[in-house]
């Protein structure tokens, strides 16, 4: 009977957290919106520190893939050392490689409140993008697919990092910790390997890294309110095919339409304050703000969210429909990116994350050149 009551209590806590997620969202003031950085030259296709190093072929198991991973890991080690870094490794055969096992390596980084003892006591907003590129045609770069989304994730992490530290330090100083579920919110970012099909998209020839990670997290036990890492995901926000001009992003899932509306509201407010660079016509990036519940269907785009969606995770999918004209062509390179659009995405997504994490009043002034960063770093080799 005791074990049943413990299980029942855990389920009730999880339901309470899910029910209050839509309410636990603090809007940024206009003054804070003006403090959200755009990334500036970091998204330059030839010299940008975030983007340029990964505008290379990144086929799983190749030196280009390893170079991209090192870029991500070195960035967090040097600039965001408070983030915990974890690796998830798997292998699989593919239709293009015969019996040869291809390695697929996911990189997971996260920041949790410093007082959180058990990993399962934190509900994590999870942002994700795949970093691999197509096996064929040889030399394919994949700028919108998905080097640019990966650079966006790095930018977002850096943009909210100091505010997270300031908020959590203030909470500790004021004795405001341990008072309920609302305070146990963390941020998690996943760089996913092996999204692309090697020959032709099928259930087995696609999503290699995300399938392996979702399966692993579903079967991994952890202490705390959430008994698995999969249950710790409060929202899985997947970025794909971002970086082309005038994107049209639908709302795919009625269950998370409330989160989509918050993102659309961020875009609308930023445009109203003339903070964004682009002037898309005839619609904003996020076109379905007024979508009604009866307009949702069961259709969606196959992508890395599917293994998580199938296991009950709430998903917000940011992918344009129709796809950019350069999709899966050799023109999907740095020269065909629309950098103002990319910088606007950087601001819109950063605002969404800052509001989700209740960072109003904690965003610092726009960072000046030469500011020093913390040198502490946490690392874990394997999940």
Automatic annotation (TrEMBL):
GO terms for biological process: proteolysis. It is an enzyme of class 3 (hydrolase). Residues 1-24 form the signal peptide. Residues 124-352 form the Peptidase M28 domain. The keyword Signal applies. Keywords: Acyltransferase, Hydrolase, Metal-binding, Protease, Signal, Transferase, Zinc. Its EC number is 3.4.-.-. One of its GO terms (molecular function) is glutaminyl-peptide cyclotransferase activity. The keyword Acyltransferase applies. Pfam families: Peptidase_M28 (PF04389). Belongs to the peptidase M28 family. This is Peptide hydrolase. It comes from Podospora didyma.
């Amino acid at each position: 009977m005791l074990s049943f009551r413990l299980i029942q209590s855990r389920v009730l806590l999880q339901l309470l957290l899910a029910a209050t997620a839509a309410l636990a969202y603090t809007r940024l003031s206009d003054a804070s919106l003006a403090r959200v950085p755009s990334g500036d030259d970091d998204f330059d296709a030839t010299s940008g520190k975030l983007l340029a190093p990964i505008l290379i072929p990144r086929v799983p198991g190749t030196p280009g893939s390893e170079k991209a991973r090192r870029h991500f890991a070195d960035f967090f080690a040097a600039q965001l050392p408070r983030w915990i870094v974890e690796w998830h490794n798997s292998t699989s055969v593919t239709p293009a490689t015969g019996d040869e096992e291809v390695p697929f390596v996911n990189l997971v980084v996260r920041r949790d409140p410093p007082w959180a003892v058990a990993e399962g006591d934190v509900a994590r907003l999870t942002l994700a993008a795949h970093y691999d590129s197509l096996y064929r045609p040889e030399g394919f770069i994949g700028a919108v697919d998905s080097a640019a989304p990966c650079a966006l994730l790095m930018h977002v992490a850096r943009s909210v990092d100091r505010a997270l530290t300031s908020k959590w330090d203030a909470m500790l100083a004021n004795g405001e910790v341990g008072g309920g579920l609302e305070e146990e919110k963390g941020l998690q970012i996943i760089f996913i390997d092996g999204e692309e099909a090697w020959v032709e998209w099928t259930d087995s020839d696609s999503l290699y890294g995300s399938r392996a990670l979702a399966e692993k997290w579903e079967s991994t036990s952890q202490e705390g309110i959430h008994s698995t890492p999969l249950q710790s995901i409060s929202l899985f926000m997947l970025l794909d095919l971002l970086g082309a001009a005038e994107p049209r992003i639908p709302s795919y899932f009625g269950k998370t339409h409330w989160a989509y509306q918050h993102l659309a509201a961020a875009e609308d407010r930023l445009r109203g304050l003339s903070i964004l660079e682009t002037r898309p016509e005839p619609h904003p990036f996020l076109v379905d703000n007024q979508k009604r519940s009866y307009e949702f269907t069961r259709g969606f785009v196959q992508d890395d969210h599917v293994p998580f969606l199938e296991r009950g995770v709430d998903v917000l999918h940011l992918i344009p429909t129709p796809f950019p004209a350069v999709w899966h062509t050799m023109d999907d390179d740095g020269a065909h990116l629309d950098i103002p659009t990319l910088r606007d995405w950087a601001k819109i997504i950063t605002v969404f994350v800052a509001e989700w994490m209740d960072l109003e009043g904690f965003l610092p002034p726009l960072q000046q050149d030469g500011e020093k960063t913390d040198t502490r770093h946490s690392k874990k080799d394997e999940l």
